[in-house]
Amino acid sequence: MQFETLLVQPRDSTTLITLNRPDKLNAMSMMLKAELVRALQELDRDSGTRVIVITGAGSKAFTAGADIREFEGRTPMEQWRMYEHGTIYDAVDRLSKPIVAMVNGYCFGGGLELAMACDIRIASSRATLGQTEVNIGIIPGGGGSQRLARLVGLGKAMKLTLTGDRIDADEALRIGLVDEVVPHERLEARTFEIADKIASHSALAVRLAKAAVRASARLPLDQGLRYEQTLFAVAMASADKEEGVRAFLEKRDAKWSDR
Ligand code: COA
Q1: Strand-pair category, 61-63 with 106-108
Q2: How far is the CA of 129 from the centre of ligand 1 (A)?
Q3: DSSP strand pairing (180-182 vs 120-124)
Q4: Which residues lie with the beta carbon below 6 Å from any ligand 1 atom?
Q5: Do residues 128 and 168 touch, judged by C-beta distance below 8 A?
Q6: What is the pLDDT of residues 183-219, one digit of tens each?
Q7: Where are the beta strands (DSSP E) in the chain?
Q8: Residue 136's pLDDT is what?
Q9: pTM beyond cutoff 0.90
């Protein structure tokens, strides 16, 4: 896959997407967003990719958010049309495969919204995060007002969103905004360790499990529990369930067929 603003590198069964505008701290331009949507859609269909990792190029930033230059002169109708065409946040949200945000540095505004749309967030000890839109006179527009509160609770989401403050990785871990913090030099190795672990399981079981857990953020409890039961029943029909159970009983490693 060839892109101007992204690097897409398969590594075994995990594919690494790197936002690649390091001189602009990987600010997400319209072109970058369009390319990211396309890359995500293609990778979700790519049979060789079991897990996706997303990160930023260079030593400073995951991404410093939407490209602020492009806000100048943008009209409400232009903004509306962009939402109609589907956003990067929708594209991440619709992925059937797991996606991990490898937060290697600055992670602000739309960058934080991108990381929050992912399934798991692993941060470098050098990372700084913030829902910073208010600093430039706007509000979160990529799901931040909804996902942040679901991750960290209403009060902490309000505090971050209304102050526009930046917090360090340890604070982000403390409030549940990221799931693990590792020394910067270990970030890639640790993230791929997690990705490889996920990729070692039945891809079908992983997709069903992901769908069930993601539903918990959207559905009332009774409906969520019913949905989980439905997916559990689907898993009972899979070849991988037969293989996984047999492998356990025969004390050997399972050979997944992802069916
Ligand atoms: N959009 C467009 N360009 C951006 C950008 C963004 N979100 N964030 C950084 N850049 C550009 C800068 O304009 C600068 O470009 P230039 O060299 O052509 O002037 C380059 O990236 C480097 O940024 P700079 O500000 O010089 O780096 P810094 O290390 O001093 O500061 C930040 C880093 C992240 C603190 C600062 O750039 C910043 O506050 N960015 C905006 C973050 C933000 O609020 N994002 C949410 C947008 S809704």
Answers
A1: parallel
A2: 14
A3: parallel
A4: 24-25, 27, 64-69, 106, 108-110, 132-133, 135-136
A5: yes
A6: 999 999 999 999 999 999 999 999 999 999 999 999 9
A7: 6-11, 14-19, 51-56, 61-63, 99-103, 106-108, 120-124, 128-130, 166-168, 180-182
A8: 97
A9: yes
Separation of alpha carbons 39 and 35, rounded Å: 6
- The label of the residue with tokens 């409030």 reads 175
User: 110-150, pLDDT tens digit by residue?
Assistant: 999 999 999 999 999 999 999 999 999 999 999 999 999 99
pLDDT, residue 133, reads: 98
Catalytically annotated residues: 113, 133
DSSP symbols for 126-154: T-EEE--GGGGT----SSHHHHHHHHH-H
What pLDDT was estimated at residue 18?
A: 98
**Cα(68) to centroid of ligand 1, in Å?**
8
Give per-residue pLDDT as tens, 162-176. Answer: 999 999 999 999 999
Please report the atom of ligand 1 found closest to the CA of residue 25: 21
- Name the residue of 19, 20, 25, 87 whose CB sits within 8 Å of the most ligand 1 atoms, as the mutation to test its pocket: 25
Q: Give the integer Cα–Cα distance in Å for 238 and 252.
A: 19
Domain 6-199 class? alpha beta
Secondary-structure class of domain 203-249 per CATH:
mainly alpha
The domain ranges of the chain are: 6-199, 203-249
